[in-house]
Amino acid sequence: MLIIAGHIEVRPERRDALVEEFTDLVRRAREVPGCLDVAITADSVEPTRINNFERWESAQHLEDWRAVAHAPDIGEEMVSVDVNLYDASGQRPPF
Q: In angstroms, rounded to a whole number, what is the distance separating the alpha carbons of residues 62 and 60?
């Protein structure tokens, strides 16, 4: 399993509109084979922060998705990015 997690910093007056731009992408991603979860959300505390979380069954599933995703280009809107890809070897309940 692969996990992509982190956050993007943007100008506070643009955050909610930028999150909205990803609504269609999130809906489509959740329907493709190999997608276990995707969420791109406004942070509940920091007005400049967009949280990104994804879980994929495999690298191939992620690559297949990226080939057809057509994500919105918000590159110039990003003040900073702290998003990373993690390999997960297993899972269990956290509590």
A: 5
